[in-house]
Design a protein that fits this description.
This protein has 402 residues and is α+β, with helices and mostly antiparallel strands. It folds into 2 domains: 231 residues, Up-down Bundle (Rhopdopsin 7-helix transmembrane proteins); 143 residues, Alpha-Beta Plaits (2-Layer Sandwich). The strands form 2 sheets. A 4-stranded antiparallel β-sheet has the order 4-5-3-6, with helices on both faces. The chain has a two-stranded antiparallel sheet with strand order 1-2. The longest helix is centred in the middle third of the chain and has 50 residues. The radius of gyration is 40 Å and the shape is elongated. It starts with a helix and ends with a helix.
């Protein structure tokens, strides 16, 4: 029970410390080294599980179950060493002969474990249980442990030798990775002398805690900084795109929306009408009187000022509505919400102001209003055409007043 208690404690601590690695998709999709590290953490977790079960099954003298669990125990042990070598190789990300040798050695070790466990089914080379259910270690078990020590030490010493060429932060990471291998090597050696004590589990727990504290936490900080920088760039791009789009959809003379924006609005409203998503809106069409005469007699600069004055008057009167310049002296206001509810009063006030302007020699703008009639209007164009006809009627009335 003491053996299983140590393994259970190691499993719980391991799961808590590495919870984000176990569940986080970042360690599955991002850097190859991160994926290898996650595989290492999962293989260590599986080792704890089989180590935990081994203590219970051994104490229960359930020979078939403890034999199967021992096989899985060795498989998870082999996977732990294999994924450790993969992590070191991918972390360093160097094409060096020694690292290629470590990669080959990792695969060879995995194959050796598979063959040894298969042979153990017929010859007790790795382990066996006597008639009383007592566990005995075979000669190949000690050989596999020696192979693990060699792989842990060789990869760790290589990483430690690269410290002198690394920056301070990277050197700390390399030192932590080297400490992992040295710690595991020491615990594997102790496991040889104390086969019934969970030295391997303790070694895995200590070693992965070292990596998590000095490497993974920095990786998460680096990832956070990287994500913040990506977010900043995306926000900057969105801001630039928004500015570019605003320029592309803004009339340079008046500052209101231009013809491109108006065409998009028409298409959007037609889609909303087709899907019956819009219930009420109004359209006011405007046209400036006398622009041609001003251009001919006073010049185009005066004509431009006249257009800006007329646009300003429209925007002030219909301040809650988007205003579009759709031609040289033509404007459209799209009424929704508050302006739609108060459309008649707003238009009456606007027309009254225009009539005062008519007598004082200021800007004169003809206007015509029409509203959407559900079930009758099947497109924006129908509403616009009614408003346009009323604008021309108003234009004639204003000329008559002159």
């Amino acid at each position: 029970m003491t053996y299983s208690g140590a393994a259970l404690l190691a499993l719980l601590v391991h799961s808590i410390i590495h919870f984000d690695v176990i569940r986080n998709m970042h360690y599955r999709k991002e850097r190859p080294a991160a994926r290898a590290y996650r595989a290492l953490i999962l293989s260590v977790m599986s080792f704890y599980v089989f180590d935990l079960l081994w203590g219970f099954l051994y104490d229960a003298h359930n020979l078939p179950a403890v034999t199967l669990d021992t096989v899985l125990y060795f498989v998870s042990m082999a996977l732990t060493v294999f994924f450790w070598t993969r992590y070191v190789i991918l972390y360093l990300n160097e094409d060096k002969p020694f690292l290629r040798f470590i990669a080959i050695a990792g695969w060879t070790m995995l194959g050796f474990f598979a063959v040894a466990l298969l042979l153990n089914c017929f010859f007790p080379l790795m382990f066996w249980f006597d008639a009383e259910g007592v566990y005995h270690a075979g000669s190949l078990r000690y050989l596999t442990l020696c192979i693990q020590v060699l792989l842990f030490m060789a990869s760790s010493l290589y990483v430690l030798l690269t410290i002198r060429h690394a920056a301070a932060k990277t050197a700390l990471h390399h030192a932590a990775i080297g400490a992992f291998g040295i710690t595991m090597s020491a615990m594997v050696i102790l496991q040889v002398f104390f086969p019934l004590l969970p030295m391997y589990s303790v070694g895995c727990l200590l070693s992965t805690c070292i990596i998590h504290t000095f490497v993974v936490n920095d990786m998460k900080d680096d990832r956070r900084i990287e994500l913040e920088e990506m977010l900043r760039r995306e926000q900057q791009q969105e801001k630039e795109l928004g500015s570019a789009k605003q320029m592309a959809y803004t009339d340079s003379l008046t500052g209101v929306k231009n013809t491109h924006a108006y065409v998009e609005k028409q298409l959007l409203v037609d889609q909303q009408i087709a899907r019956r998503e819009i219930k009420a809106f109004g359209v006011v069409v405007f046209d400036l009187n006398g622009l041609k005469q001003i251009n001919d007699t006073k010049g185009h600069d005066a004509g431009d000022r006249y257009i800006r004055e007329g646009c300003h008057l429209i925007c002030v009167s219909f301040k809650h509505s988007p205003v579009y310049r759709i031609g040289g002296d033509e404007f459209v206001a799209f009424l929704e919400g508050e302006d739609y509810q108060n459309r008649k009063a707003l238009l009456d006030d606007f027309d009254a102001q225009i009539e005062r302007n008519l007598h004082s020699g200021q800007v004169v703008v003809a206007s015509g209003l029409s509203v959407y009639r559900p079930g009758h209007d099947n497109s924006y164009r129908h509403v616009f055409e009614r408003a346009d006809r009323r604008m021309y009627d108003r234009k004639g009335s204003l000329k008559a007043m002159e």
